[in-house]
Amino acid sequence: MTPVTDHDSTPRRVGAVIIGRNEGARLVACLASFPDWVRPLVYVDSGSTDGSVAAARAAGAEVVALDMSQPFTAARARNEGFARLRALDAPEFVQFVDGDCRLQPGWLEAAEAFLSTRPSVAVVCGRRREIHPEASVWNRLCDAEWDTPLGQAKACGGDALMRVAAVAKVGGYDPGLIAGEEPELCVRLRQAGWEVWRIDREMTLHDAAMTRIGQWWKRTRRSGHAFAEGAAMHGAPPERHWVAETRRAVLWGAVLPLVTLLGLVVTPWAGLLLLAYPLQILRLSRRLGWERAAFLVLGKVPEAQGVLEYHLNRLRRRRAGLIEYK
Fold it and tell me: What's the CA gap between 207 and 23, in Å, rounded?
């Protein structure tokens, strides 16, 4: 089929990198959501046992099977997919997407047109939505999290259309990051003079499938880890990447509970410090609603756990001589 165009007579130069593991029917839906003019279509598999590789090949995708004897990160998977895409037939733009998502109709046309007419922009993203926000409070929280402000932005999420030359120029994703790899890539792109934009278009449908508090806790703890690592990498002025988020996590999730506990040894009046939590929920609820405000405050505990885990791991690596003191 001849590639479709909408703003000039040049065929679209859009490829895609999809990452996943045991996504099953969600991967099949993801692959089917791509128009057939999107090529190369690269699927990066991280040890699936559910037939994902066969499904990807049946959909016409080039498959990259990760060597799982090496530490796995989503960033590493995206990099290997990106390398294969460029080796096959480097397009001008690449759509990165997770295998538990599917593209919304018209997204690629709008995003490709946006990048084609704005040479200073390296990344464009749109609205990611949860497929079933009504299924659980955890899904609703995810759906609200995806609703980021419109206009020029500091970062994108896992789904975005990017300019291939720009991503290659800054060296792609940092494969050592276990989370927060997209915002970190955007930091380096912006430092290189590129722009990141969020436009008012439906982009993808995501299936978080979170039904238990343990899933939410683990995800939020990883966010804390990403905050701490991002701040360690790019926390210096003027970027101050995730410095405020890290400090809030430590203050609300660790310092305040610890100070209260120590204070109770001296006087029972120290328990009044815990009133800061409902007061903070009340303050945030005026802007975010009660449900989101409550879990945003509660989430500081697993975030603080993630921050602590990052710094303890960093200390162990320093003592082992794996990283240098700075």
Answer: 10
Q: Residue 9: pLDDT above 50?
A: no
**Strand pairing class (14-20; 41-45):** parallel
Encoding tokens for residue 4? 């479709």
Sequence letter at residue 245: E
296, β-bridge pairs: none
Q: In whole angstroms, what is the distance from residue 95 CA to residue 163 CA?
A: 9
Q: Over 75-109, what HEC string results?
A: HHHHHHHHHHHHHHHCCCEEEEEECCEEECCCHHH
Model confidence pLDDT, tens digit, residues 86-127: 999 889 999 999 999 999 999 999 999 999 999 999 999 999
Cβ atoms 1, 36 nearer than 8 A: yes
State the Cα–Cα distance between residues 121 and 117, nearest whole angstrom: 9
Q: Of 85, 78, 268, give the one whose Cα is nearest residue 177.
A: 78
Task: Name the residue among 107, 242, 51, 55 with its Cα closest to residue 96.
Answer: 107
* Cα R_g (the chain), whole angstroms: 21
Question: CA 308, CA 315: separation in Å to the nearest integer?
Answer: 11
* Dihedral, CA of residue 182, residue 188, residue 192 and residue 197, to nearest 10: 30
Do residues 195 and 157 touch, judged by C-beta distance below 8 A?
no
Distance between CA atoms of residues 326 and 321, nearest Å? 13
Within 8 A by CB and 6+ apart from 152, the residues are 195, 196, 197
Task: Please state, in angstroms and rounded to a whole number, the distance separating the CA atoms of residues 103 and 203.
Answer: 6
Burial of residue 322 (number of CB atoms within 10 Å: 0-12, 13-18, 19+): exposed
The DSSP output letter for 73 is -
Q: Does residue 318 surpass a pLDDT of 60?
A: yes
For residue range 280-295, list pLDDT tens digits in order: 999 999 999 999 999 9
What pLDDT band is residue 3 in, cutting at 50, 70 and 90? very low
Helix, strand counts (H, E) of the chain = 13, 9
